[in-house]
Specification:
By secondary structure, this protein is mainly α. It has seven helices and no strands. The chain has two domains: 1-32, no CATH class; 38-109, Arc Repressor Mutant, subunit A (Orthogonal Bundle), CATH 1.10.10.
Length: 110
């Protein structure tokens, strides 16, 4: 259900700058377009691909499959606490990869 909402939200995004301006009410800022967000999506995918296989698996389980840490722990055969630590380590590794990406760095300085 969440994936459906996410894909619907992406479909409702403006295609380009002109479309964004047409959808904007007077006095509001235009919404980011699909093309603007595509560069960020590619940066996230690139960062995920540079992670270890274990970290990629954990990130996928928690964020794509939406598993809780208890469910992740059962899947990995570890306690919920240990799964939580593994999840935090995977997220820290992803954060570090993202912060070294030039696209992300550029967006952070804007």
């Amino acid at each position: 259900m969440a994936a459906l909402r996410e894909s619907t939200a992406i479909c409702n995004r403006p295609i380009d700058g002109y479309d964004a301006l047409l959808r904007t009410a007077p006095g509001e800022s235009p919404e980011r377009t699909i093309l603007e967000l595509q560069e960020l999506r590619e940066a996230v995918v690139d960062a995920q691909e540079r992670l270890s296989a274990e970290h990629q698996y954990i990130i996928n389980c928690v964020h794509s499959e939406r598993l809780s840490y208890a469910q992740l722990g059962r899947r990995l055969g570890v306690s919920k606490t240990h799964a939580d630590r593994l999840g935090k380590a995977a997220e820290a590794a992803l954060r570090n990869e993202l912060l070294t990406n030039p696209v992300i760095q550029e967006r952070l300085t804007q």
